[in-house]
Amino acid sequence: MRTSRLNERIEALRQQMRSLQAMAKNVELAPDRQVSLTDPDARAMATHGKGTGLVGYNVQAAVDTDSHIVVAHEVTNLGHDRTQLANMGR
Asked: 80: which residues sit within 8 A by CB, 6+ positions away?
């Protein structure tokens, strides 16, 4: 009885290892070495706290100051917005 439970546990661990190896391969094949299990297009975004972050998108919007209407927007999966200001100014 004990041997059969150990064998079942060993097989479960082997299956888990195969699954983890497949996930590692997917991460290695991704261009930016990131994979989101819930949304494949989302990427890690830094937040203000040290060592914290979330998985999501970076959204920029240009708003007309008189009418308060959004006149342009852009959604990216870049982890920073350093290159987005020039795009919004056009």
From this structure: 46, 58
What does the pLDDT read at residue 66? 95
- Give the C-alpha separation, 57 to 42, whole Å: 6
Alpha helical stretches, state H, 1-90: 2-29, 84-89
pLDDT in tens, 44-86: 887 777 777 788 888 888 899 999 999 988 888 887 777 777 7
3 state SS of 36: coil
Query: Which residue type, as a one-letter code, is found at position 83?
Result: T
Choose among 65, 79, 70: nearest CA to 32: 79
For residues 27 and 35, is the Cβ–Cβ distance under 8 A? yes
DSSP 72-88: EEEEE--S--TTHHHHH
